[in-house]
Design brief:
The structure holds two protein chains of two kinds. Chain A has ten helices and two strands, in the order H-H-E-E-H-H-H-H-H-H-H-H. By secondary structure, chain A is an all-alpha fold. In chain A, strand 1 and strand 2 form a beta hairpin. The relative contact order of chain A is 0.13. By secondary structure, chain B is of the alpha/beta class. In chain B, the strands form two sheets. In chain B, strands 5-6-7-3-8-9 form a six-stranded mixed beta sheet, sandwiched between helices. A three-stranded antiparallel beta sheet of chain B has the order 2-1-4, covered by helices on one side. The chains are: A mainly alpha, B alpha/beta. At the A-B interface, helix 7 and helix 8 of A face strand 5 of B.
Chain lengths: 256, 257
């Protein structure tokens, strides 16, 4: 499934960009506009070294990841049960539907001022933003998943004697799992974007978003690029993790 | 007929939607004896499946009664359904699919008993090797056999089958029909099978109930007194198939408006 040809095709354009980048940076010869890779790559070689009096690249990465995972898990713990119930019961959806529709289109970053007012700058408000960003993809995918569970599976369960509660436990939940997983996958991506944005706020003192703003003030553009590369790599890695899980856990999907 | 397991009397049913109400069943009455195979036939869309769903409790009748073994007015026999589209749970293995009904709370079956029962059902339908496979990994005929085993696992008094072999090729179909006959012998199960295939009905049934359409009423009930296993080239067999085919053709055109 993963041939060398395919691998090369995927790598071709990124490689071209790197080469053009390097050529342009040599032409411009100004590190404040476009640093060359000879300045960016060494940062990855010493990931634990303190950067310009601030925390190291590795430390900032770990801090951001911790925040994302915490906020993401919190969102999952809230969204999955509410989503299952809202999808299953018309009654619950009638109560929860309108508030979900109103809040869904608000970008998580728009909550920042309120988050700061309520929780002040720091861990809690960052978690709050991540939570809001991750909440809706999980919630909406879960509701959708429950609705798309085949009626015929429920009938099969019923004809074998399952009660309503048993149908919920043994058909709705496993039948919705693939959609929940898709929701988690999307949500993690959103959460990762939220954390970087929230950490850019003045007053934070760690995280990849903080690092980028901190070194920007010091004019160290090569560190900004290094930070962006780390953000991108973690984004790809998490997506691959979820994709891998999907293929392993829900091998039956699309083949029923 | 002695030893009746199920009797339907005056069953009527209408469905209503935006365009008004539509009567699908009118005064349906027939009975099924223990260990009998009864086939239900009629033009498509005449309400055959609805009858199964009423017996199974997935729908309720507007009027009429379903009398069961020894009791009036209530369905106290255990019935379960096998659907045209096997309807297996795709996330469960073959083993767990068959065990599904037994593991439900109200049955209080110990896990040891479940294992024992599933093993014997797996050998009944010749699928021991596929115990751990997921449904998507086995063929259509095997899936339908798992569906039959899953239904038998809750030890139903009557097995309701809704065009169970429709999606299968001719050979697999015959193979499964033979299995129904064998299971009837071995497990003393009673079958009510909806089919639109006259050959299938004559091959399987002790009795064939033919319905007319819109609304469905009983057109004719035909006993098939041929010996099992039935020989499809036997002149009597051919005669029954022809008779039923022409009966259904006739009801089909009468019903058309």
């Amino acid at each position: 499934m993963f041939s060398i040809k395919k691998f090369f095709k995927r790598l071709l354009i990124p490689l071209l960009i790197l080469i053009i980048w390097e050529i342009v940076s040599l032409k411009i010869n100004n590190n404040f506009i476009l640093p060359g890779w000879e300045d960016i790559l060494p940062i990855f070689l010493t990931p634990t070294a303190p950067l310009f009096g601030g925390p190291s690249l590795l430390f900032n990465t770990i801090v951001s990841l911790e925040r994302v995972i915490f906020g993401f898990l919190l969102a999952a713990a809230v969204a999955i049960p509410i989503g299952l119930l809202s999808g299953w019961s018309k009654e619950v959806y009638e109560y929860s539907g309108s508030i979900i529709s109103i809040l869904k289109p608000v970008p998580p970053i728009a909550w920042l001022p309120l988050a700061i007012a309520w929780f002040s700058i720091g861990f809690t408000s960052i978690i709050f933003i991540i939570f809001l960003g991750a909440l809706f993809p999980i919630l909406l995918n879960t509701i959708d998943g429950v609705r798309n569970v085949r009626k015929s599976w429920l009938e099969a369960a019923e004809t074998l004697g399952a009660t309503t509660f048993e149908k919920f436990l043994t058909v709705i939940i496993p039948g919705t799992f693939p959609s929940i997983w898709t929701g988690l996958r999307v949500a993690f991506g959103v959460a990762w974007m939220c954390v970087v944005a929230a950490e850019m706020l003045p007053g934070t003192s760690s995280g990849l978003g903080f690092l980028i703003m901190y070194v920007y003030n010091l004019g160290q553009i090569q560190v900004i690029v290094a930070g962006m590369v780390v953000i991108g790599i973690i984004g790809i890695a998490s997506d691959m993790f979820f994709k891998f899980g999907q293929d392993r856990l829900f091998d039956w999907q699309g083949k029923e | 007929m002695n030893n009746q397991i199920l009797e339907l009397k005056g069953i009527s049913k209408s469905f209503s939607d935006a365009s008004g109400s539509c009567k699908v069943l009118a005064d349906i009455a027939f009975s099924i004896a223990e260990n009998e195979i009864v086939c239900l036939m009629g033009p498509s869309g005449c309400g055959k499946s609805t009858i199964l769903r009423i017996i199974n409790g997935l729908e309720s009748a507007d009027s009429g009664i379903v009398k069961s073994k020894g009791s009036e007015n209530s369905v106290n026999i255990k019935s379960t359904m096998v659907f045209q589209d096997h309807n297996l749970f795709p996330w469960l293995s073959v083993f767990d699919n068959i065990a599904y009904g037994m593991r439900l709370k109200k049955r209080y079956v110990s896990e040891e008993k479940v294992k024992e029962m599933v093993s014997s059902l797996l050998s009944l339908v010749h699928l021991e090797v596929f115990s751990g496979s997921k449904p998507y990994a086995i063929s259509g005929g095997m899936r339908q056999r798992v569906a039959v085993a899953r239904a038998l696992a809750i030890e139903p008094d009557i097995l309701l089958m809704d065009e169970p072999f429709n999606a299968l090729d001719t050979f697999t179909r015959r193979e499964l029909q033979n299995e129904v006959i064998r299971i009837r012998e071995e497990m003393k199960t009673t079958f009510l099978i909806v089919t639109h295939n006259p050959d299938e009905a004559v091959y399987l049934a002790d009795k064939i109930v033919i319905l007319s359409t819109s609304p469905a009423t009983i057109n004719e009930i035909i006993s098939v007194p041929l010996k099992y296993p039935r020989d499809t080239s036997d002149p009597d067999y051919v005669m029954f198939v022809q008779k039923i085919t022409s009966l259904i053709k006739a009801t089909g055109t009468n019903g058309r408006s």
